[in-house]
Design goal:
CATH topology: Double Stranded RNA Binding Domain
Strand order of the largest sheet: 1-2-3
Subunit structure: Homodimer. Interacts with FtsZ.
Number of helices: 2
Family: Belongs to the ZapA family. Type 1 subfamily.
Distance between the termini: 72 Å
Structural class: alpha+beta
Organism: endosymbiont of Galathealinum brachiosum
Strand content: 5-15%
Largest sheet: 3 strands, antiparallel
Low-confidence stretches: none
Subcellular location: Cytoplasm
Number of domains: 1
Radius of gyration: 24 Å
Shape: elongated
Helix content: over 70%
InterPro entries: Cell_div_ZapA-like (IPR007838), Cell_div_ZapA-like_sf (IPR036192), Cell_div_ZapA_N (IPR042233)
CATH superfamily: Cell division protein ZapA protomer, N-terminal domain
Mean pLDDT: 84
């Protein structure tokens, strides 16, 4: 099933040979399983017919989730910056108290 230069994965009942370093093969298998689950969910809803359309909808949904998570990460970064600024203000206030 796998060797050091690549990995065979199955997506929607089709086999694909993917170049993959040995240390990343487990992650690639997990990714293929995750993708297959998403594809099966869309297929089982029955509103979209055709392998290509199902794949496009899964890709669109995953891209949307990825971009949404980046927005969430940006807001966490903003919180981190505000926390650092607050910490600086606290340090300055404590230093002023010690001096007085």
């Amino acid at each position: 099933m796998s060797d050091s230069s690549g990995l065979n994965i199955r997506i929607m009942d089709k086999d694909y040979r993917v170049a993959c370093p040995a240390d990343q093969q487990s992650s690639l298998k997990d990714s293929a399983d995750f993708l297959n689950d998403r594809l099966d969910d869309i297929k089982n809803k029955g509103s979209i017919i055709g392998t290509e359309r199902i794949a496009v909808m899964a890709a669109l949904n995953l891209a949307h989730e990825l971009l949404s998570s980046h927005v969430s990460m940006d807001s966490f970064s903003d919180v981190d910056n505000r926390m650092l600024n607050l910490q600086k203000k606290i340090d300055i206030a404590l230093r002023d108290i010690e001096v007085a």
